[in-house]
Amino acid sequence: MNIVKLAYFDEFQCTNSECPDSCCKDSWNIWLSRREYLDFKKRDMKPEFREIADKCVKRVKDTGDDYKYAKILHNEDGCPFLTENDLCMIHKEFGENALGYVCKTFPRHYASIGDDAVAMSCTSTCYHVNELLMRHPEGLAITEEEYKQNAKTVFSSFTVRKNWEGYPYYWDILGAEIDILQNRSFTVSERLLILGYFCQKADEYMKNGSANKIPSLAAMLLDNDLCRKIADSLKPAVPQSDSSMTDSVSILLNLSARIKKTNMASYIKMIDHVLQKTGCTIKEVTEASEKWEVTAYFSKEAILKLYNVYRHIEEERSYIIENLLVNIVFSQDMQDGIWKNYFITAVFYNMLRIIAPAFLNEEYSDRELALALTYAVKIVINSHSAEMGTFEDYVKDNKCTLPYAALLIC
């Protein structure tokens, strides 16, 4: 078995109280294994600590999975064990070894690829990960090393099953996706168009039983002349028209409506901030969501201002967007669908041009940019709103196509 990872992986170390966006502030449930739960419950605790533990650390119905034996239930403000200084009470009281596996490993992402490999990366929902991505203008290298048999067993984020029809071509697909995204002969948006062509074809091959054609397809797209023809053929005649701007705001409103149905207070605060930057108000968003009268509730000038900020980022340091996209693609579960993953990536790129600039002033630091990218990933991808809502909307409307993805990208 081999370990395949993005080279920055070993650079990551949690910045703890220096982080401007503590992961513990978000309203997400932390799983505990059976052993972790039992060890935690039998610890000698101060009365005030025991009160929080009894209230918030709960068994769940039997899932048949010892890794999902119990949960730390978050409140609207995040983890109940988070102090006013954004430090962990469990860590402070009992040390790092007392933390559950999820808390000790986040934002590290481990995926088992059959019995052959473990793919390692870090999620860009972590601010410091995006800082690291910004420190690699040369691009993200992929390294491979032998898995030491005496190493601790890795608990996977997901497992690619050996009986999945795409398993024999997993590395061909992933390698092609990353080669396309890192091809600096093209702009970022052009690379996404070429990637869309590859993902659509690969998905078709998978569905019609001819997945063995995928390696040849990947090799074919190493030809820059061919890629240029593909990119040019997919570019919309009028990029960033009023119609495409309306579509972008419609996606934003749908994300907002879905996020507001959750109890994720920090996410609701983020999406409200973005909407205000586009000229929307909370009342207007509710009305627009119900009546679908999107154009009446945003400022074209405000959107164009956000686009201009983003355009400057991509023109000056396109490697940052490249690295962000590579990091996202590397950790996607292909079993969800090659085309589905791509379309969600296209939606993310569309939203990135609005959401990230919404958190930036005309002059901003690298620290502020890393934080803005983090918010964009959280709102679109980590909230699952794009996957569980926006994608399904496009399927229902018969818009889940490569030409429509091109409109979102360009």
Describe the model.
This protein is about 55% helix and about 10% strand. It is α/β, with parallel strands linked by helices and about 400 residues long. The chain has a five-stranded mixed sheet with strand order 7-1-6-5-8, with no helix packed on it. Strand 5 (about 110-115) and strand 6 (about 115-120) form a beta hairpin. The longest helix has 21 residues, at about 340-360. The radius of gyration is 22 Å and the shape is globular.
List the helices and strands and how they pair.
Blueprint: E1 2-6, E2 30-32, H1 34-41, H2 47-56, E3 57-59, E4 70-72, H3 89-94, H4 101-105, E5 108-113, E6 117-122, H5 127-134, E7 142-146, E8 158-160, H6 170-181, H7 188-207, H8 214-220, H9 224-234, H10 242-259, H11 265-277, H12 282-291, H13 300-316, H14 318-330, H15 338-358, H16 366-382, H17 385-396, H18 402-409
Parallel strand pairs: 1-6, 5-8
Antiparallel strand pairs: 1-7, 2-4, 3-4, 5-6
Helix pairs in contact: 5-16, 6-7, 6-8, 6-14, 7-9, 7-15, 7-18, 10-11, 10-12, 10-17, 13-14, 13-15, 15-16, 15-17, 15-18
